## 1
Amino acid sequence: MISLYLEQTSYLHRMPAGIKLLGMAALSLALYPIGQVSILFGLALLTLLIYASLGRPALQGLKVFRSLVPIFALIFIMQAWSVGVYEACALLLRMGTLILIANLITLTTKMDDMMTAMMPLFSPLRLFGVDPKRIAFAVTLLIRFIPVLMGVTQHLLDAWKSRGGGRQLWKLAIPLTIQSIRLSDHVAEALASRGGIRSVKKP
Amino acid sequence: MQDKSLVQIALYAALIAALGLIPPVPFVTGIPITAQTLGVMLAGIMLGPWRGALSMALFIFVVALGAPLLSGGRGGLGVFVGPTAGFAIGFPFAAFATGYAALLLRKLPTFPATLLASILGGIIVLYVFGITGFKLVTGRDWLDAAKIMMVFIPGDIVKAVIAAAVAQAVVKGLPDAVYTRR
């Protein structure tokens, strides 16, 4: 539902999440000193070929990058104007490739596996008395309530439109905030009456 | 941390995701302004500095796990290597600063107090992170990075005003719900 993960199997899906994350970290360091447009272009093309090897859904997933076009255009103009067109191309190719590679990990790794791979980052929190299980519970709660609050938002939008709408759409944030606060009170009561998070076995 | 705080943190993070659903309003600069950074300001005001920051950290963590929760349906690890990475990483710090400032300004009436807090946390602190991230990713110098980011400022000032207006309305409707105004 609310994940960019592609439900399929591939060589990238089978690779462990930790290896993929370390690989990306290494690649981002390796890419940094490269300044030749030809090499960067080749690498970008290679990354796109990997997308193609995953099939059509992966390529369609590239649509989400449309929202980055304005900021990329802005960076290109500024860079071309102050340093040069060649450097601007190199910068955009390097940045674009890195984003594509990072997105590739997201497309081929289940959220559960990603969380397991990232959990060691939270172990220092034990020193402050925070149980990593609570983090897992909070993540579950967040993911569960996104569709609920999106539903509330949609209802408010529909009601707004049926009353004639108008430009002051921001006013919807008021009932949305109030309803979220009420909802969180109800959820907290429901949780308390069931014995609290300590009683949750596996979130 | 109590269970109730944990629920508030999680639900508030879900609210930020829902705010990403409100259609972006094209602003004078031609760059659409989205409701999401409005949510960052409101997190600090509604939940206070610590819980506000935790709820933003949770939100960003779930984005990193692969949920397309940022406005425009963006998400995943790509966000953290892109030109706007600093903003995403700065969300928890901006929420903390907003909440902390709102607590300090508690003696002022709601609207000016939350407006000032939103400008300090949601604009100044957030842009320190945003510009630093932009500089690191694009390799430009500070002044250039700051200049490019300026196009977003007018939209963010509008959002700070909206955050203050929302805070004022919520204080009227549910006086106990706004942590920094209790």
Note: Chain B is about 70% helix and 0% strand.
## 2
Amino acid sequence: MNRINQALAQDKKLISIYFTAGYPELEDTTEVIKRLADAGTDVIEIGLPYSDPLADGPVIQKSSEQALRNGMSTRKLFQQLQGIRDTVDIPLIVMGYFNAMLQFGVEDFCKACEAIGIDGIIMPDLPIDIFERDYKALFETHGLKFVPLITPETSEERIKTIDELGDSFVYMVSSSSTTGGEQGFGEEAMSYFKRISDMNLNNSLMVGFGIKDAFSFEQASRFTSGCIIGSEFIRRLTNAGMEGIAPFIKSLK
Amino acid sequence: MSKYSVSEKGFYGDFGGAYIPELLFPNVEELRQNYKQIIGTDDFQNQFKSLLKDYVGRPTPLYLAENLSEKYKTKIYLKREDLCHTGAHKINNTVGQILLAKALGKRRIIAETGAGQHGVATATVCALMGLECIVYMGAVDIERQAPNVARMKMLGATVVPATSGSKTLKDATNEAIRDWINHPKDTHYIIGSVVGPHPYPDMVTQLQSVISKEVKAQMLEKEGRELPDYVIACVGGGSNAAGLFADFMDHEDVGIIGVEASGKGVDTTESAATTILGREGIIHGSKTLLMQNTDGQITEPYSISAGLDYPGIGPLHAHLFKTGRGKFVSITDAEAMEAGLELSRMEGIIPAIETAHAFAIFKYLEFKEDDVLVFNCSGRGDKDLETYRKYFGY
């Protein structure tokens, strides 16, 4: 079984952390992963930095710009991740923008991920119809889960279509906004979490966008399998460095 | 269906489509499902035509530039889009899209702008229609296009500086897209060029195609035939070019020439000549030719003209280029500035620097004496006076 599905099968709310590879320093990538895993993170999303990250807010964009200035690239990331499976056994997902994958070659990208032991891919700007037509078979061949996104504006009919494309989890965007906003969730968001949960999809649900502490984590995971934290983690990493990683993960539990 | 019009899925050959995050899907889908139907209604067409005539000042003249014709020994017409209200062709599109936004019940308008022309054109129609207007503009462009910033503010728009990346048009576009993601219900995004996800390239081409329709009628009147031998326009994203080319693309005997900005030269790192320096990839939701490094990171383009330093071109233009239907020429800063000066001195028309690029092609292309050339004189040079002044030392 794919590591993502193994994690989702556990009877607990999953903590998933997004971070930008090559940030704050180029060679920090594997150190961040190891510290996250040691601190009890359940799933890690390794962000491949992109020059024009449309679905991300200012914190992630800034960290991406810094990582690119540091010299991060697709090839560099795959080099850094060689051997990561010797020490880390939690699910690892690569998150990036489709142009980077396209320029590397989609098949080569999938092969490289498989060789490293990557479990899944999140590409926010790879539309589901093009994924299904051109790349679904390729992802499956290389054992990679495709994680689609939904938002509060996604229609029920479309959610059902999206649900059929993957068999791990759906990335549920908490609100129709780019990453990094919000504070705690209001009634509207809570009823959206419940509404989707009540649809009993084949995929599990993980909520992302707007989670920053134990309170918002509890809210967003009440009806779902767990949460994805990105901007807040990067903010902490920027301010407190490596030493701040373990305390932050523990503060969420 | 013509060879060069958009497919049902939003593609021009290999280019186009809607490579957008799911977060943008509802916004773009609402537009995709409605734009053709709305534009096709009598109500829309009547309002659109009436505003273009009485507010924008259309039809714009097709002017025979006799002095220029004599110098280059060919027949040169200028399609005077520079005489449009607000000083460029951009307003054809914003008038159309504001009517569309109203038909969709939107209350808030956002736009990106490079040179500021599209921002001014958007702020203008928002003032006219009483809608809130937010314009994203690169911090660098705000500096170099100060008069247009003042115009937008005077018209009641909020100008938000884009401070990420190169702080120019591509970054302003990113910010506008983010704003749209954050306001999925009440906001319409007026993209100013034939770029972005489907249906924008097609929608903007349709709204700008009034340019080529008028040229056809005016050609018939002046030359006794509808088709010129060449249509020529500068290409940043490519909206003025798409508007001029639209009704001529299917007439294979009409030569299509797009003129890109090569900045300080295509062999330097400061250029915006996408057909030479670009490769296929995805930018702002569209598969097209764009300037990028081997990793797919989008390169920061450069041109002396803020309206041409976009790292991609619209998918229609990528298709025209790849199929060989369109010929693309690139012009340096210096060549464009000289051409702008020449047009000013010989015809008494100070063009926008973007527009001036098109008039520099005579260095590279030869025409026959009985050829009829139609240039899109897409914008006037008022906004660029400071750049001209510094360059020529006036």
Note: The first helix of chain B runs from residue 25 to 40.
